[in-house]
Amino acid sequence: MIELPRTQALRCFITVAREGTVSRAAAMLKLTQPAVSLQLKALEESTGLQLFNRTPAGFTLTEAGAALLPLAHRAVAAASDFKAMADSLNEAQRGTLRVGTILDPEFTRLGPFVRSLAMSSQRTEVFLRHGVSDDVLAQIGRGELDVGYYVDATPQDQLAHHSFTERTIADGRYQLAPLLCYDYRVIAPIAWRDRVMGKGWAELAELPWLATPPHSGHRRLLDDIFRPLGALPKRIGYTDQEEAMIDFVESGLCLSLARDNVLAPRMARPHQFVVADKVKLTCDLSFASLAARRQEPVIAHAFASVRAVWNIKPAIAGAGPTRTRKVAKNVLNRARTCQAGTAGCCLWKTAPVEDDARRRRRDSATSQLRTNQWWLAPSELPASCRNKPY
Fold first, then answer.
1. What dihedral angle (degrees, nearest 10) is formed by the CA atoms of 136, 142, 144, 149?
2. Helix (H) or strand (E) holding 58
3. Taking CA 234 as the corner, what is the angle to CA 232 and CA 235, rounded to the nearest 5 degrees?
4. pLDDT in the model for residue 141
5. For the whole model, what pTM was predicted?
6. How far from 270 is each of 90, 275, 346, 379, CA to CA, in Å?
7. What's the whole-number mean pLDDT along residues 164-179?
8. H or E element in which residue 238 lies
9. Does residue 351 carry a pLDDT above 70?
10. DSSP letter for each residue of 96-123
């Protein structure tokens, strides 16, 4: 015999021996009668033995067939055990990943990330837990989460040219893979224009600020700025929802931070807040894990998947200059003093990277926002500046 018989041929042999006819065996195996006959013929040819006596009443085992039948049973059982063990090992290799999420799913591209894990060959099972940045990082440190999203200030040496290479924080304890560099703006009630325009952080610290959760990125970012300046600012109100933060500010009570991409649609319609022109916070949205676990297969796969979702290629040493800083779409990315010389007239420019579909949606709501054009809500312009062709 040149090679071992196929499992299907052994099943046909066992079933015909039990049923006594090819027709009944074919029905049991859900095969055609010619298919069963061919399997038996191939088995007899491969062994060089006649396994059945063919009679008008049906099939009976020969002496050789009777001797081989118990071995055929054991071979088929062994093949079944082999498949069951392989399936079990394959299931054990299916990774589970506990992910800490922050902000809104659209901003973090959470849906495409989870989908990419579920559809990959590893078929990672994902468990999500929503929270705020510092809580997510703490849970990663305690082993309650495997990975998570995290917001921190962009390092000073990365502000001009952001390479998006991985970095560590907390004395090397955590590994961060930056995904997006974006800006937080300071917004104030519209009646406070003179109190915020042209003012720096030290002057803004004297005004009341909206309170956010103690472990949120908002709170940490502002505390890191204000603490070196002296006492922290007075905080009033409390919310952990970004849209509600803008509503608080419009009520005339306090200042707040706001993401540029959250501000853009609000500024495209009538609003009751102004954006401070002299200060901003440039931040990284990053994907984080414990540095000691970064190369674990499931975590390494998660990092590769999230980078692919954000179209970020791994940095290669000696591959040329670092990439220019990547910013969020629809970023309000610079301020300019009104050329008419009117004090407090501040015009903003939208990022030129806005895609056509997003721009059409913006323009359908208002003609106020135009890519590559300086703009401001007419109600915010001093009378001497209105209707000027900026």
1. 20
2. strand 58-61
3. 110
4. 94
5. 0.61
6. 57, 14, 17, 8
7. 93
8. strand 235-238
9. no
10. EEEEEE-S-HHHHTHHHHHHHHHHSTT-
